[in-house]
UniProtKB/TrEMBL annotation:
<dbReference type="InterPro" id="IPR004713">
    <property type="entry name" value="CaH_exchang"/>
</dbReference>
<feature type="domain" description="Sodium/calcium exchanger membrane region">
    <location>
        <begin position="576"/>
        <end position="718"/>
    </location>
</feature>
<feature type="transmembrane region" description="Helical">
    <location>
        <begin position="640"/>
        <end position="666"/>
    </location>
</feature>
<protein>
    <submittedName>
        <fullName>VNX1 protein</fullName>
    </submittedName>
</protein>
<dbReference type="Pfam" id="PF01699">
    <property type="entry name" value="Na_Ca_ex"/>
</dbReference>
<keyword id="KW-0109">Calcium transport</keyword>
<keyword id="KW-0812">Transmembrane</keyword>
<dbReference type="InterPro" id="IPR004837">
    <property type="entry name" value="NaCa_Exmemb"/>
</dbReference>
<keyword id="KW-0597">Phosphoprotein</keyword>
<keyword id="KW-0406">Ion transport</keyword>
<keyword id="KW-1133">Transmembrane helix</keyword>
<feature type="transmembrane region" description="Helical">
    <location>
        <begin position="382"/>
        <end position="402"/>
    </location>
</feature>
<feature type="transmembrane region" description="Helical">
    <location>
        <begin position="678"/>
        <end position="695"/>
    </location>
</feature>
<dbReference type="Pfam" id="PF03733">
    <property type="entry name" value="YccF"/>
</dbReference>
<dbReference type="GO" id="GO:0006874">
    <property type="term" value="P:intracellular calcium ion homeostasis"/>
</dbReference>
<keyword id="KW-0813">Transport</keyword>
<feature type="domain" description="Sodium/calcium exchanger membrane region">
    <location>
        <begin position="355"/>
        <end position="472"/>
    </location>
</feature>
Amino acid sequence: KAAEPRSDSSGPRRGSLCDRHCAIINNVQGDLSDLGCHLHYPRVPPAVCSPSCCQQHLDEVCESCMVKTTLTAENAVEANKLSNNYKFGFKKWKSHVTARPWEDRSEIVKELYSDLNVIRSSGGSTMTCGNVLYLLLFGWWLSLLYVLLAAVMLITVVGAPYGQLCWDLAGYFLWPFGKVIQKVEVPKSHRALGGCETGAEARGAGETSPLLGGPVPRRWHPQCWAATKHWQRAGTVVWLCLGYPVLALAHGLVCVTAWLLIVLIPVAKLSARTVTSVLLQPPERLLIRRLKVTEVPLEGEVILCCYHAVNLYYYKYAVDGINVFAVNLLPLVLVTLVLGYVDSHNHLTSSSIKFTLALLSIMPLSYYIGMAIASISAQSNFAVGAVVNATFGSITELTFYITALIKGSREGNRCYAEIVKSALTGTLVGCVLFVPGLCMVIGGIRHQEQRFNSRSAGVSSALLFLSVGGVFAPTLFSKVYGKLVCGECHNVTQNPLGHYLCHNCHFDLMDNNGTLYYSHVQPLVYTVSLLLPAAYLIGLFFTLKTHSHIYDIHISDCHMPGHHHSAVVHWSRWQALVILLLSTLCMSACADLATEHINPILTNSTISQYFIGVTVLAMVPELPEIVNGIQFALQNNLSLSIEIGNCIAVQVCMLQIPILVLFTIFYPTNFTLVFSDLHVYASMFSVVLMNYIFMDGKCDYFQGTVLVMVYFILLAVYFFAPSPSGC
C-alpha cells in the first residue's frame, strides 16, 4: 500500500528552499531499485514562510528527509520481507524470497539461465582466455576419449554409425565454441521400410540445410539401417553397453567439476545436455557444423550451441532461490557428517581436518537458516515473524556454545568455557567494528559519502551500551570484591617486606568455600540475565510499536512496468519450516563435531586460545551476514549494513548470554559470567568508538578504514596474548 508521508505538526512547515534541498539529496543518493527498495523523499507543499525560516530549519529538514524510506517491491511477500529488514530484531536478508518476473531481469542475468540452444546473430570472438582454459582442462582429453570410442564402435561393425558420430563429436568437444549440433529429420526414403538407398544414390544425394548453409556430411547408411526402429537396433544396444556409459561418466565428471568452479557453469550445462539429449539421439539425425557470421537459422531444432566457456557473472546464479555458493557447499555438510561419525577413530582423516570441515559446514547451514527465517517471516504476520526470529535468529551460535560447554563439563576442562567467552567477545567486537567498517570501505568505493538513519542507529547504540554494561557488571563486581590469587611469586629485593614479582594472577571468587561467588556474584549474574532480555523486549516494543516512525517505512506498489505479478515464493511456509528444522539439526551435528575435534588444535597449537575464539569461532558463522551487509552497502543502503552488526551484537549480550546462563542452571558447566580484563576493555572500547563514528548519520571509506584498523589491532593483541589460565 502506498502511504502518504507524515507531516510533522509540531514543527514549522517547510518551504520550497528546503524542498529543493531534499530533491538534491535524492539525486545524490540515487535509486536503490536493484535492492528492491529505495530512499524516497516526499515533496512537501510550499509553506507560507520566509526563506530565512526555511534556512533556519534546513538541517532538521535534511534529517527528516533522510529517515523517510519508501519500499517498492514486485509483490506483497517481497515488500513484507523488505519491511522486516528495517525492523529491529529481525534478520536482515538481501536475496529474494520470491521468483522475480523474467521480463524484469537484466540481459546479463537472463543469459545465465538460458539454455545452450540459442544461435546469436553476433556471438563475438571465440578465442578467449576462458575458452582456452576449457581446452586445457577438459577439451583435449574429452576429444581423445571420443576418438578411442569411435575406433571401438567401428570395430564392432554394427555400431559403425555411432563410431562416425564419436569421430564428429571428437572435433566438436575439442573446441565446441561457435559450432552447432542440430537435430534434423531423416528423408522419407530413409524412413520407409525397404526403401534403402544404393551406394550410388547415397553418394549422389546432396542434402542441404538452410540453417547450416552447406551440404550435409554423408552418414554411414548400411542396408536398411534407417528402416529399423532406433531402440531395436543391434548397434544401439552395443552403443548403450560400450560407449554411452563411458561418455556419461566422463561428462558427469566434467559437469561436477565445472559446476563447483561456478564460472565454468556453461561447460557444466554443455556436458549435461550432451548426456541427456545428444548421445541418446539416432546418429543419422545429428548434424555438426560451424556457423558462419552471416548464417541465419531458418529451420531445424538446435540442441547445442555454445560460444563461451566462462561467465564471471555466475556468482549471481541461484537454484530455487538458493545462491550457487550455498548449493555447492551443501555436499560439504554431508561429507563432514559421514567422516565425523563413521571415522570416529581418525583412521581416514585427522582431527584438524574434521574440525575445519565442520566449521566450513556451518556457513551454508547458516545461509539456509537465514533464508528459511526470512521466508517464514515474509509470509506470516508480525507475531509469527517475531517469534521465529527470536527463536532461531541466534541458533547457529548457541548450538556451538552449548555443545562446547557440555563437552568441557564432561571432561572437566575449563578451556572450553574460556573459548566460549572468547567467541562471544569476538562476535561482539567483530559485529561492532569489522562488519560496519568493511561495509563502509566497500560501499565507499562506489559512493563518495553514505548516509544512514542516525535515529535508528542511536536506538541500537543505546541498547548496546546497556547490554555491554549489564554483561560485564559481574566481572567488574568481582574485580572490586574478589581476592587476588597468584600462581607463582618471587621476592625481587630479597627483603621480606620488599617487592614481589607474581605470575598467573587472577581474582578468586571461591575463597571461604565460595561465599563471595554464591552469595553475591551468582545472584548478580541471575539478575542481569533477567534484566537484559527484558530490556530487549522493551527495545522491540519501542521500535516496532510505539516509535515505529523512527524508521518511517512505507510500502509502495508503484514500480517499473511489468511488476504486477502474483507472488511465486521459492519456499512455502511449511517447506521453509522443514528446511529450518533440518538445517538446525545438521548445525547441531556439525557443532558437536567441531567441539569434539577442537581439543588437539587447542593443545598443540602455538596460537593463543583467545585468538582462535575471537576470530575463527566467532566470525565464521557470521559470514552470510557479512555478505548481506556488503551487498546492502554496495546498493547505498548503509542503514541495513549497520543494523546487521548492531542487531547481532545486541542479541549476543541480551539473548545468547542469558540463555547460556539459564542453561547452566539446568546443566552445570564451568561457564561463569566473569570475563578477563582483555575482553572487557576490547568490548567497551569498541562500543564507544562505534557510537562516536555513528553520531552524525553519515560516513565514508576513511571512517570505515578506522574501524577495520582498530579491529585488526585488537586481533593482534589477542594473537600475542597468553592463553587463559588452566588451558
